[in-house]
Every structure is written in structure tokens, then in C-alpha cells.
Amino acid sequence: MKWLDSITKKFGWDALEPKGRRKSVLSTITTVDKSLSGKKRNQLAANSTDLVQNFSVFAWMIRRHLDYVSKFRFQAKTVDKAFNVELEKWMEKISRPDYMDVSGRFGREKFFRHIEARRCIDGDVGILFLRDGRCQSIQQDLISDPAEDDVLDGEQWVAGVRSNGFGRPLEYSLHKRNPTGSGSVFSKRVNARNLYLYGFFDKASTEQKRGVSPVVASLNPLRDLYENFDYSLIKSKVSQLFLMAIMREAEASPMEEMFGDPNNTNPSESGHLEDCPVKEQEPRKIDLSNGPSVLDLDVGEKIDVIESKNPSNELQTFSRLMIMVSLKALDIPYSFFDESHTNYSGSRGSWLQYDRSCMDKRDDQIELRRRWTIFRLTQGILDGEITLPSGFTIEDALFEWVPIGTPWFDNSKEIKGDLSAIASGLDSPIRITKERGRGDIFQNINELAEVMKHAEDVGKQVLGRPIILSFDPVGAPEPNTVVEVDNDDTETDADST
Hints:
Elements (H helix, E strand, L loop, with lengths): L1 H10 L20 H4 L4 H15 L1 H14 L2 E5 L4 H14 L2 H4 L7 H15 L1 E6 L5 E4 L22 E3 L5 E9 L6 E8 L3 E5 L16 H25 L2 E6 L5 H6 L41 E6 L6 H15 L6 H4 L6 H39 L16 E5 L7 H13 L5 H7 L5 H22 L4 E3 L11 E5 L5 E6 L1
Antiparallel strand pairs: 1-10, 2-3, 2-7, 4-5, 5-6, 8-9, 11-12, 12-13
Helix pairs in contact: 3-4, 3-8, 4-7, 8-10
């Protein structure tokens, strides 16, 4: 009915009616793996790899993301304090490159940073847990469907992953590079217990088997920026060069028109002057490599200088806008790229929002590290590298991966704010210490006690009385003030150190 159609259009959604003013979107909804089937996934990875190798802005985006997301510190949390010390020492040992990476190249933190970088560039990356406790990274294009001869009856593979009906991975199909370096051949199947596919997953498990990086949304703008930068540099180089165009407007003299060129010594066989070949004039060669020169031009010649203006202000403004939009793919504020873009308050506000956006990304890193820790701890117990306390099981070996926080912007103001939050019960010293990246508060207290005890012993030996250092943030002593205690137990303020 026409009246129903008119009402639907009047009270419907404008997004369903492009009206030729914008690109129409296909109505067919497909899975992520279907959209990136065949060579499309590799094309995306090749595009981002090329940009990260050649465009410094994109490479900086990845590095800045890694600085905030991939740095962690291991902390044992069992009830046995002595075992905690032993476990952390063992963790430091197995974190060295020879124990961590099958190639012996990356230590623990460098390896996990590399893994995070590959999932940002390629969408996902495989971590293969080997029997000797080491790990091997598997690049995304080496995880692909096996050949038809290697597929058993009833098996269904999607982008190198075989899963059950609920989307849980069961096996991965791994390939290896050809000796020539291009292409790959099937290598083996790997049980999902021994390989962890680390990537960006935004869809339901049944809809997405492989990861897709959020930087995909910024690849086209970054590619255009990269090309525009090249064109602008070429234009800028031209403006620095002294290019000349010499135009000749010499006309033939009346005698030459009547009798021909007297310099022509090779008349045609016909004897007619109009058939005689014309001698071409040698091109003028001008060498400016020795500095300014005086040019003696012929009659009718003139010189025009070719120059080009620098990139316009409009292009610079638009380039900044495109960089700002591209940074949003990883939630990075523009003030990180251009420190003069805003003031202190704006920078801190941007950082707080960015730090909140990193929490979800850090959770992915924590889960990856948790799986690796359980794998490595199980392997270490079986190999006798570490012994659990009596009555302990592996479930009792509690631990935590603490992200390395960001230091204060303004120490005096932010420390006072943290102390106020603690005093009012809105926060705890443990949480603040973790967020600031200042280690373990209990270890910090032990180290402070050791320093205070050392100062007291030295004071007795040198001054005959103990020197007591006050670290109380509330009270009379100012920071860096040493308080001396006389023999009669009366306190006197000493000079500030």
C-alpha cells in the first residue's frame, strides 16, 4: 500500500535510505573469516607490515601502544613468603632468552612485546608451547588450512583452525616457509592445548576463528598520508633546485630565406635549396655546479626559472586531522603525537582516558601470561626445577602479573592526592603502588626498614647516637629531612640533606 510505504519512509531509519548520496552497504552479513578468506587476510597483513616498515607515524603508533600495554612484572602471591622469594627468583631465571625463546633471541618481556606487536600488525599470532619449556611465535600466514589430502573425513577447517560446534578450537594447522622464503608448505597439526592464538576477537566464538586488528580501519588514511608525504617532499625538493628553461625565438634572416643557410655544406642531390637538410642547433649546456655564472644568450633567447611552492597550510592541517583520526584506531590521543597540542590539564585528561582504554588490552596480555605461567610452572615441577612446599598443589601457587604503571605528571600534587585517597578510604596503598609502577609495597616497606636500620647502626658507630630517618608523609618533618635522636631520647631537627 502506498500510504503504508509513505509512513514507513517518514518514520523509518534514514540509514536504510542512502538516496544515492553515499555508498550503499551490502545487506548480506557474513562471518569475519568469510570476509577475509583466501588471500585477503594476507593482503591486510602485508599492507600493515609495509606501513610499519616505511611510515614512521604508523611505526610510532605501534610502539606507543606497546609501551602502555605489554610491560608487566611478575609477583608471587602464595601464603608461603619464603616460597614466594624462591618462585620469583626462578621466574627471573627462566625469563632469560635461552630459556624463553626457541631462537634464543628474546627474553620474557621482549618476547611478549613482540607478540603484542604482531597481533596489532597481523591481527593474531600463535604461541607454540614446546616440551622443553620454551616458546615459538607462529606468524599468522603460517596458520592456514591443510591440503585436501591431509583432511580427514568429516573435518571442517576455517582459516587453519578446526573447532567444535561451540567455536572452541581443537586443532591448528601449521605450515613452514619454503627454503626460497616465499610461500609455505604444510608442516603438522597441533593440539589447541599446546598453541595459544593471541589476537583481537570482537565477535562470538562461532562467528570468528581468527583475529582482526583494529588498525585495519586506519590503513587507508595512513597509506594516503604516506604517499602525500612523498609527493610533498618531492615538491619541496623542486622548490630548492634552480631549474631553468631556455626559450629560443630566433628568426631566419632575409638572406637565409633567399639563399639558404650558408653553413649547410651538404645540399640535396636535387639541387634545390628547400630540399637541403637543416642542421640542428646543438643544445646549450649550462653547468651551475661551480656557483653563480654569467650566461651569454643569443638574440631571441630568454631564461625562465621553474619553482614550486611548499606544501600549503591546508594540506598540513588536513594531514594533522588524518593523523589524529588514525591514532584513534588504537585509542591514542593526539597530544601523545604532538606534545604542544594542549596544556598540562588537557594532556593529563587525555592520558587518563587512554589509560582506561588500555585496561581491556592489558587483560588480554594477562591471560596470555597466565597460560604461559601455568604451562611453565607445570613443566618446571615435572623437571625438578622448582619444588612446591609440602601440602601445596599447583593451584596453591598463586601469582599475579602487575602492569608497569606510568609515573606521576606532577609529583607533589599527585602524591598528596594519593595520600588523601588512602586516608579517606577511597583507595589502598597496594593498588596505588601497582598503578604507579613502584613495585610491591611490602617489598618497599622491607627495603625502607633495611635502610632505617642501616642508618641507625652507622649513626651509633660514627656519631655515638642513632640516626633515625623519618618517612612519615604526615607530620612535621619535611621531605629529605634527617631527624637525630640524642641519648636522652629528645628529637632535634638536623639540616636538610
